[in-house]
Amino acid sequence: MINNYEQTRSSLRGAGSNLMFLLIGGGIGATVALLFAPKPGKELRQDVSDGVKYGLETANETVAQFKETAGEKVSHLKEVADGYYHKAQDKVSDLYRAAMKSVNDGTEEAKALGTEAIEQAHDLLTEAGTKNEPSLFEAGSKPLDQRNLKTGIL
């Protein structure tokens, strides 16, 4: 897109330069024609008027062509920019959906692991209660020096 933009910008600058050179050349040509024309004042004024009209018509045609070309280039750039915008929007939407799927999958996995941990803890507590051993909760009421520091039980 940047390349297209630079090309368009370059071609628009070239058209503006051509218009300026055309106007300068027309002015120089009219001046030289006046200096070397052996005509009476009335004819000279008519020639100058005709020359100015011709220069204005040529300038107007060139400006019209320039406007048309610029409009086409701007329309093309807008279409290209819209295309890039929609592609970027689609990619962001895809990334968002993938991220949300990962979050949901991670949440489900965490719930499953939590449920499994609770079930294992319940099984251990139930198993400890059937062996007539002090439960983990009862061991917490003993003095610290009588506990196993790793498990918290006697």
Question: Outline of this structure?
Answer:
By secondary structure, the chain is mainly alpha-helical. The protein contains three helices and no strands.
3D architecture notes:
By secondary structure, this protein is mostly helical. The chain has one domain (2-117): Methane Monooxygenase Hydroxylase, Chain G, domain 1 (Up-down Bundle), CATH 1.20.58. It is built from 3 helices and no strands. It has helices spanning 2-36, 41-130, 136-139. Helix 1 (2-36) packs antiparallel against helix 2. The chain is rod-shaped, with a radius of gyration of 44 Å. The two termini are 74 Å apart. The model has no long low-confidence stretch (mean pLDDT 77).
Please outline the helices and strands.
Elements lengths: L1 H35 L4 H90 L5 H4 L15
Task: Based on the model shown, name its key terms.
single chain; 154 residues; mainly alpha; Methane Monooxygenase Hydroxylase, Chain G, domain 1
| SS strand fraction | under 5%
Give the number of domains.
1
Reported by name, the CATH topology is Methane Monooxygenase Hydroxylase, Chain G, domain 1
Query: What is the overall pLDDT average?
Result: 77
Largest sheet: none
Radius of gyration computed on alpha carbons: 44 Å
Q: Given the helix and strand composition, which structural class is it?
A: mainly alpha
- Would you identify the regions where 5 or more consecutive residues have pLDDT less than 50? none
